Amino acid sequence: xxxxxxxxxxxxxxxxxxxxxxxxxxxxxxxxxxxxxxxxxxxxxxxxxxxxxxxxxxxxxxxxxxxxxxxxxxxxxxxxxxxxxxxxxxxxxxxxxxxxxxxxxxxxxxxxxxxxxxxxxxxxxxxxxxxxxxxxxxxxxxxxxxxxxxxxxxxxxxxxxxxxxxxxxxx
Length: 171
Ligand SMILES: Cc1cc2nc3c(=O)[nH]c(=O)nc-3n(C[C@H](O)[C@H](O)[C@H](O)COP(=O)(O)O)c2cc1C
Prior knowledge:
The chain has 171 residues and is of the alpha+beta class. The chain has one domain: Roll (Pnp Oxidase, Chain A), CATH 2.30.110. The protein is 15% helix and 39% strand. Residues 23, 38-42, 55-58, 61-63, 89-90, 92, 157 line the site of flavin mononucleotide (FMN). Residues 16-164 form the Flavin reductase like domain.
């Protein structure tokens, strides 16, 4: 059995928040039309050959069952002019469909919602799913990538806030 940590979860969160990250918007739709649309900063690339990425999702979130049932998942790497999307997709109390309703999107392969104003998009199928604590690590086999430079630097998240990276040169 693990010993109780000498810190609480607020302190743990605060310490982890010192690691600056990018911000992504994850979307998915099931065959029955249920939509997931959530903001995720736990994204990272994993493997080049074959191309794999991962993100972590809390198993308590309303998006979780949709992500587990959808054929395809899309990950949008957001730019600074998409902070409204990041805030909307992180709003509790809104369903995935309601979150998506407020933004411009088009259906992609297997009907996965794609946000066209995004500079970089990856889409793929679920590979392994690893439960760890209260989160689930979702690995994706990437089969579509889309790059559309917008000239706007990436959106970042640091110490609990959306920030503009000070030295992020526009593309
Ligand atoms: C900057 C930012 C990053 C986030 N990253 C994650 C993440 O990596 N994994 C996750 O499960 N939720 C993350 N969230 C929270 C989700 O976007 C969403 O608010 C949460 O899943 C609650 O959704 P629910 O109402 O569907 O339960 C993040 C929120 C913000 C604002």
